[in-house]
Write a structure and sequence with these properties.
This protein is α+β, with helices and mostly antiparallel strands and 283 residues long. 15% of the residues lie in helices and 33% in strands. It is built from 4 helices and 12 strands. This is Secreted protein.
Length: 283
Amino acid sequence: MHRLLASACVALLAIAGPLAARELGQAPDLRFLGFSADGRHFGFEQDGNDGVSERGAFAVDVVDALTGLSATGFPRGATQLAFESEANDPRRLALRGFRFKEDDEATTTTEVIRRWTRAATRRPLQALRLTDAGRRLGGLALTDLTEAAGPVRVMDQPDIIGAHPGTAMKYTVTAAMPVPEDPDLACRERETSENHRLTITLAPEIPPWDPEAANRSPQAFRTRSVELAHTLPPRTCFSRAQVTDVYRSTNGRSIAVVVALIYDVGVTDSAEYRATIFRVGAN
C-alpha cells in the first residue's frame, strides 16, 4: 500500500512539472485616499510586494478627471513590477530621485520605499486636498471569493430594487487589455518589454421602462472609455484585468474605477493597480 502511495505521489509531481515549483503570490494592499472636493481628482496607495520578491513595493497615484490619466507628478513609488522594468518603462519615472543599490536589499525594502514615497508626495497631496471619502458602489475586490459571471454593474444611489426598478443611474464597468494568446507561456522568457493599451469603460444603462431617456439626456447616457498605456516588463505574462472598486464622489460629478492587473512572473504571481476617473452627471 505504501509503495502504491509513493508511486502515485511521484506521478503527480511529474504531471505538475513547473507548476510545483511556483510560490504563492500576494497582491498589494489597496488604500483609497479619496476625492478632491470638486470631484476632479482621486487618489490611492498600493502597499506591499508579492511575498516572493526580495524587493519591496509601495506607490501612490492620483488620477485627473480632465484627462482620465494620472495627475501631473504622479504616480510615485514602486509597484510590484517596478524593479523588473526597463529604463524606458514609466514605472522607472515614478522612481525618479529614489536612490538604491542593486546589490543591497536593505535599500529597497517596502518600509524604505514607503517612507521615500510619502515624503515625495506629501506636498502634492496636501495641495490636492483629497478630503472626500466618496461612496463605494461596487466591484470585485481580490479578497472577494464570490463567484460572479459577467461584468461589474453598479448604481449611483442605494435604491432598493424590487417591484419598482429604481431611478438611480446604473452602469456597466469593464476593463480589458488585449494580449496575444500564449498557451506555452513563452512570455516568461521574453527579454524585452511589450507595450499594450488598458481600456476602462463606463457604460450607462438605458432604463427599460424609459427607452427615450438617452435621447433626452445624451451626455448623461454616453458611454465613456479611457485608454491607459501599459507596459509589460521582460519575462512577465499578463493574466487578467479585474475591476475591483468603483467609487462615486459625494457631489455626484465623478466616478473612479480601480483595476487590478494580475501577472505570471514565472516563480510566482504579481499584481498592480491602475485607475481612472470619469466625469458624470452632466447633460
